[in-house]
Amino acid sequence: MKAALQEVDIAFHDFHPPEDDFYAEVIEGLKGSPPTISPKFFYDQQGSRLFDAICACHEYYPTRTESKILRDRREAIAQHVGEGCVLIEPGAGSTEKVRLLLDALRPRTFIPMDISREHLRLAAQGLAEDYPWLDVCAACVDFTAPIPLPVDPDGARKVVFFPGSSIGNFEPQAAEDFLAHLRDMVGEQGGLIIGVDLKKDAEVLRAAYNDRLGITAAFNLNLLHRINRELAADFDVTAFAHDAFYNDELGRVEMHLRCQRDTDVRIGGETLRFARDSSIHTENSYKYHVEEFQQLAARAGFRPRDCWTDEDGLFSVHYFEAA
Ligand SMILES: C[S@@+](CC[C@H](N)C(=O)[O-])C[C@H]1O[C@@H](n2cnc3c(N)ncnc32)[C@H](O)[C@@H]1O
């Protein structure tokens, strides 16, 4: 396996933000009211591994449901997209889902983008090895900043693949702004294949973000371990507990790290105090009705062309064209 990986030649562009940004953003977020840590910081190498483990949890329906929709609908998706496009996947993670589409879509170039550098490198190399006909050009980026496109599309159609309901991690207005940015990136002939988690029974959502094996809890707490490791902080991780619930009014699952007792943390010359029962807000995951999301995408310059859901109405995959 190792020898084979070394033979694979992929283009890898590293636009990872400087480490100083991590410190500055963490301090600013922790001093906020309420304290927050951006969900993009979940994904160091350990966080990416834990996310893959979450995807395999019984309670976490989104991955298997979206994967089944993509598998069942790949021919219909391919008819919309056409052959030979430049396929761009922001937040590509382990690149498992794109594998369900590649043989049907036959893109000219695949551009996986992710903030988790080593995880992305391994995933992209594995993909290039398994699909020798495919030009793989990986880019380590923070997609909350303007995304540079590392290849010249040379007239080919540009299509963004954005699965995993990662769009739900943006506030609704920020989601619209992000889609508008994708719309600019793909241009007039462009397309967007996007996976969006649907509004549903609160108990199903609660269970999905509170798996019995405690993997989502470990994923959430890894943020503090990461800050301790990389910023020489001294979070007492045992003073915090994973807390995830559905906020019906705002239509989102919220993840928090809830303080079990008063605790101080030293980080880069500052001491921050967290009181018992207060929390650090680490992620929102907005859920949408199909029409609600289509309206949001339309405001960003995308015309709805198709939408597929599973028979239980848990998850949706949309195809949009540039309007
Ligand atoms: C919810 S996971 C989804 C992974 C995969 N696309 C899927 O559907 O299973 C989010 C992915 O986006 C990446 N990510 C999160 N925030 C990011 C950011 N600001 N810039 C680039 N990648 C980011 C993470 O490293 C992770 O691989």
Summarize the topology.
Blueprint: H1 2-7, E1 11-14, H2 19-30, H3 45-55, H4 61-72, H5 74-81, E2 86-90, H6 96-105, E3 109-114, H7 117-130, E4 135-140, E5 158-162, H8 172-186, E6 191-197, H9 202-208, H10 215-231, E7 240-247, E8 252-259, E9 263-267, E10 270-274, E11 279-286, H11 290-299, E12 302-309, E13 315-322
Parallel strand pairs: 1-4, 2-3, 2-5, 3-4, 5-6
Antiparallel strand pairs: 6-13, 7-8, 8-11, 9-10, 12-13
Helix pairs in contact: 3-10, 5-6
The structure holds S-adenosylmethionine (SAM).
S-adenosylmethionine binds at residues 40, 43, 48, 51, 91-93, 97, 114-116, 141-144, 163-164, 166.
In short:
By secondary structure, the chain is of the alpha/beta class. Helix content is 38%, strand content 26%. The strands form three sheets. An eight-stranded mixed β-sheet has the order 1-4-3-2-5-6-13-12, with helices on both faces. Strands 7-8-11 form a three-stranded antiparallel β-sheet.
